[in-house]
Amino acid sequence: MSQPHQPTAGAFVPADDIRSRFSRAMSAMYREEVPQYGTLVDLVSDINARTLDAEPALHARMAQAGELERLDVERHGAIRVGTAAELATLRRLFAVMGMEPVGYYDLSVAGVPVHSTAFRPVTDAALLANPFRVFTSLLRLELIADSVLREKAAAILARRQIFTPRVLELIARCEADGGLADADASTFVREALETFRWHSTATVDAETYRALQASHRLVADVVCFRGPHINHLTPRTLDIDAAQAAMPARGMDAKDVVEGPPRRDCPILLRQTSFKALQEVVRFTDDAGAHTARFGEIEQRGVALTRKGRALYDRLLAEVRDMGNAGSAAPDYESRLAQVFRAFPDTHEALRAQGLAFYRYSLTASGRAQADMTTEVDAEAPLDALLAKGYVQADPITYEDFLPVSAAGIFQSNLGGEEQKQYQAHAAQQAFEAALGGRVHDEIALYEAAQQRSIDQLRAVLRGTPVVDAEPMDAA
Question: H-type helices in 341-442, by residue range?
Fold first, then answer.
């Protein structure tokens, strides 16, 4: 039977373009729903412009690496779902946009009853096109101690459908045909957005809401509404400390500390802060009330760390936290953090030489000139020698992922700050992947592959035999 809707493969809209359309639509929707988010985006834009003007070397490095173009479009969002079926369908939805599950995060060990992954692009080209990512958490109902309440929550979640019929049709069409034509891609974006939209009407009565909230505020947020609603979007800043200091003057109630590593000359991994969640009027099935869930977050991204670098980072962070049991809420936390992290090298030369961080290697103008001349450049020479001669440069690979302790700190500060339930639970990655319907990528393996690809390409060019870029395989 003919299928008139099916275009030729060349007529499909690239997944990168669908992702860009979706991220723009999401940003516009969230700005309308949470006006303070627009203020936050404007603040970050101002600080980024000032930072680039004040640091010409940073401006030049980002321009050469293709990072400037993606700075203003960079966003990540966060969503929380309640069932395996919801998570598995989100995996299929994000796949339409070229986003795959990367990393496994067990936040239960930090007192938040969820485990999570980040859906994001994984290839070099896709990340440069638009690095939009969505941190996606699955509620762990088994961590609700009250069995009656646990069963009631499961029954409530089983009755809802967070996806529109049309978006489910278009996901299936994309899977069957291998892509979406332009009109279908536009409809997909519009319909997919409905899953992430805020609904001020709860699906439960006030008593049920209060019981679930008493178990954990996040449980009530996940279970009691028609859909999961995006709970924050995150622009990327180049100076998070300046942004943190400026937030109060623009009417934003900033959290007390920046989560993640301390301020450094060479930023590593991820630093995050936010304005605190807004109290919003909601209508229960029998009464009116209030709910807090949505907030505004900003992030500063640094270089991705190797396994050795992450081990050092984790050890130092544990050392800071062992100094007292108040964690990042301690009054002297920032000074303790800065003191302990003096043991972490703070130049790119040292990070690279000690194998602590990942870099992308490419020929400099001098290196290209030498390679084009009859003078031979040893294609197999050690990278250190090529760097020392100025033939090769090493650009830091941006960390695209998340830190579980930081994520938990952001979650807790926006759930009232006082909740620190310590669940006696262990990482359950296999259970999470079973719910997801596929495996998650090992994020460090992705960075290792990106660095190695750059080395292979560099040596191939020096040999005069360029190779085709081999990008990562899809997650199983």
Answer: 348-353, 365-372, 383-388, 404-413, 429-436
